[in-house]
Automatic annotation (TrEMBL):
<keyword id="KW-0460">Magnesium</keyword>
<protein>
    <recommendedName>
        <fullName>Coenzyme A biosynthesis bifunctional protein CoaBC</fullName>
        <ecNumber>4.1.1.36</ecNumber>
        <ecNumber>6.3.2.5</ecNumber>
    </recommendedName>
</protein>
<comment type="pathway">
    <text>Cofactor biosynthesis; coenzyme A biosynthesis; CoA from (R)-pantothenate: step 2/5.</text>
</comment>
<dbReference type="GO" id="GO:0015937">
    <property type="term" value="P:coenzyme A biosynthetic process"/>
</dbReference>
<keyword id="KW-0511">Multifunctional enzyme</keyword>
<feature type="domain" description="DNA/pantothenate metabolism flavoprotein C-terminal">
    <location>
        <begin position="7"/>
        <end position="213"/>
    </location>
</feature>
<comment type="function">
    <text>Catalyzes two steps in the biosynthesis of coenzyme A. In the first step cysteine is conjugated to 4'-phosphopantothenate to form 4-phosphopantothenoylcysteine, in the latter compound is decarboxylated to form 4'-phosphopantotheine.</text>
</comment>
<feature type="binding site">
    <location>
        <position position="100"/>
    </location>
    <ligand>
        <name>CTP</name>
    </ligand>
</feature>
<keyword id="KW-0210">Decarboxylase</keyword>
<comment type="similarity">
    <text>In the C-terminal section; belongs to the PPC synthetase family.</text>
</comment>
<feature type="binding site">
    <location>
        <begin position="126"/>
        <end position="129"/>
    </location>
    <ligand>
        <name>CTP</name>
    </ligand>
</feature>
<comment type="similarity">
    <text>In the N-terminal section; belongs to the HFCD (homo-oligomeric flavin containing Cys decarboxylase) superfamily.</text>
</comment>
<keyword id="KW-0479">Metal-binding</keyword>
<dbReference type="GO" id="GO:0004633">
    <property type="term" value="F:phosphopantothenoylcysteine decarboxylase activity"/>
</dbReference>
<keyword id="KW-0285">Flavoprotein</keyword>
<dbReference type="GO" id="GO:0015941">
    <property type="term" value="P:pantothenate catabolic process"/>
</dbReference>
<comment type="function">
    <text>Catalyzes two sequential steps in the biosynthesis of coenzyme A. In the first step cysteine is conjugated to 4'-phosphopantothenate to form 4-phosphopantothenoylcysteine. In the second step the latter compound is decarboxylated to form 4'-phosphopantotheine.</text>
</comment>
């Protein structure tokens, strides 16, 4: 229908940062607030979808507007949560700022400051978007995000192809993080790029409207 274009559709969204443990009290993370992913979840619900939000640690309240909410910490946990669920969903929106690397070994005990130099070895995390892009089922629409600081649209298109996504939402990393507003480019496989600017909920609305056209 006009107001509920996502009625009967299931949307899986990842949001927020991940935390990669160094030892029991320390971690590697980033400044993602989770606001964009939570805004998408809220609007998807409003448009009639059944919504699952897989969220890393954020300061946001656990939303009342999802049908299911999975709280995770690390990239590996987020990957496992998505892996378990993604096949049941029509739309997969990978909005989380997943840490690219995590400590190869997280120490069992708190690391003491006895050494003048401490070398931390990092290993690459699984790329969740790339996994769902490459394993998507017929009819599934996969949306990724790209935080860039230069050549935003070109880099986003490259990401779209590499990860086999259907849409990449590209933004300027310096403007997006933590803010209530966003300016993004929606980059498609074979449609012109669209620029959208406004509150994160407005950006979410435009994104979901365009995703409906791809279903
Ligand atoms: O390659 P890059 O990290 O710039 O790609 C960003 C996109 O990939 C985002 O949609 C993010 O959620 C997703 N991603 C992921 N798993 C990772 C790294 C990024 O799902 N390990």
């Amino acid at each position: 229908t006009e107001e509920k274009p996502l009625l009967g559709k299931k949307v899986l969204i990842t949001a927020g940062p991940t935390r990669e443990a160094i030892d029991p009290v320390r971690y590697i993370s980033n400044h993602s607030s989770g606001k964009m992913g939570y805004a998408i979840a809220k609007i998807a619900k409003r448009l009639g979808a059944q919504v699952c939000l897989v969220s890393g640690p954020t300061c946001l309240q656990i939303p009342y507007y999802t049908d299911s909410y999975v709280s995770v910490e690390s990239a590996k946990e987020m990957f496992e949560a998505v892996l378990e669920k993604y096949k049941e969903y029509d739309i997969l929106i990978m909005c989380a700022a997943v840490a690219d690397y995590s400590p190869t070994q997280s120490a069992q005990e708190k690391i003491k400051k006895t050494q003048d130099k401490l070398i931390l070895e990092l290993s690459k995390n699984p790329d969740i978007l790339e996994f769902v892009g490459k394993n998507k089922l017929p009819g599934q629409v996969v949306v990724g995000f790209a935080a860039e600081t230069q050549n935003i649209v070109e880099n986003a298109y490259e990401k779209l192809m590499k990860k086999n996504a259907d849409v990449i939402v590209a933004n300027d990393a310096r403007k997006a993080m933590g803010s209530d507003e966003n300016q993004v480019y929606l980059v498609f496989r074979d449609k012109p790029t669209i620029m959208v600017e406004g509150k994160k909920e407005e950006v979410a609305k435009e994104l979901l409207k365009r995703v409906c056209e791809l279903l």
